[in-house]
Amino acid sequence: MRPALTAALLLAAAPASAQGISLDTIKEVTRTLSADEYEGRAPTTPGEEKTLATIVDRMKAAGLQPGNKGQWFQDVPLVELSAQNVSNLEFSGGKSPVSLAYRKDMVIGTYRVVPRIELKDSEVVFVGYGINAPERGWNDYAGVDVKGKTVVILVNDPDWMTEGLTGPFNGRAMTYYGRWTYKYEEAARQGAAAALIVHDTFPASYEWGVVQSSWTGPQLQQDTPGDKMDQSLGIGWITNGSAKALFASAGKDISTLEAAARQQGFKAVPLGLRASVKWDNAIKRQASKNVVGILPGTVRPDEVVLYTAHWDHLGRCDAVDGDDICNGAVDNASGIGGLVALASAHKKAGGAKRSLVFLAVTAEESGLLGSKFYAENPVYPLAKTVGGVNMDSLNTLGKTRDFVLLGAGKSELEDLVKPFVAAEGRVILPEPNPQAGGYYRSDHFSFAKLGVPMLAGRSGNDMVNGGKEAGNAAVISYTMKRYHKPQDEYDANWDWSGALSDLNIYYAMGRALADGDAWPNWYPDAEFRGIRDKSRAGVK
Hints:
single chain, 540 residues, alpha/beta, Aminopeptidase, Glucose Oxidase, domain 1, 15-stranded mixed sheet, 16 helices, globular
């Protein structure tokens, strides 16, 4: 049971009259940024230069001021690693040798900024889901020393197969422990030389082709002192079929071990195999940019309400029918279109009491790097950032009857948004696929990790025209045929009514926060509550 809203929050949640969101603006920005001449908007490419110029021009036209001490940009230091001459990933010591080919059977990379990686005869240990969660009484690394060893890890949480949302890891709803980023972080903390995640389409929520396109070619990461030498030598994925062959070589049944890994008290299993792989890294240090625009507050300008969207996409990618530009029209030129349209609407409404900041971040597709850098190096202190909304891929399919909150059950923003959803004649429903861990896969998470409540919502699948059947079919079609592929191109026939309805909700909520004096918090049992309370404790 959630605590009742404070009086201040209830007052702030009174429905605000939504301003006219310019559909022409959304269309024009989306069409422009996803054009072929922007080359898929990969960070640190000529496509970035065109993208940044367009965003600044549109922010100026919307009436924003440069938001970083008089500048439009925040530099984000990045380093690009390109794996070259990748050998097969070889496993020896079993019933028969197993050799996995790069891209076909496995992908591998590293966070370490070094010219060459060589993993040689590293002992292999199956560590279940690779989770160390003392607050949940769960430790897959208990009783085993994996320093210098290669760990094999299952994707998602131990209870992902549960139908409901109750269980040691929230049942079907993924926690952060289920994300691949966490699994590599924990493996490094345990001293593992390499960490390999077993891909499985349903619990991963994407097919192997998405892993191939995302994990091959130049890989960007934040450039930090120390060159990430505290990280594992190698991090990667192996196909489900390869994992079965691997376990068979070790004389183990993968299904039996998977079932054991789902139980509390699971003990890691040495496989009696040794792993070897090597490759070269081409290293390129460079900087990308976040774009920061602001509408200063009229009463408390030091208090900030945040709107975010990422401007980057994959650039040039695996060609389909001769087309190698991943244009990223929906993901996420549309979100930048929404960001600019919201800025214009707020400007026309006049200044709010608090400042409204519009942040277009880089390198989301590379691991939320732009938002992570801003959150760790904020232009406006996070303790004075009230909360906000992130927009990652607007609805171009038509209006829905439902509105979905990603990671529901986390913050008071979920209560605040209810009247604005109702004003659109819509209802809030649970995520249809919470096992995908959507809350941990876009830029709001960078702020949430450091305590700032951020709303992550989207249109549901119950279409006004066609119902759930049409909505489910459309989502499956986009995911399978266009997501992270060259086919994500602008279409003049898109139905933007759903996007406009969502943006009305985002506008009204942002305005309520900016004109109110409430400080929505995380619910007491949310994983981010403690850090928010600590950051706000010293603020007058």
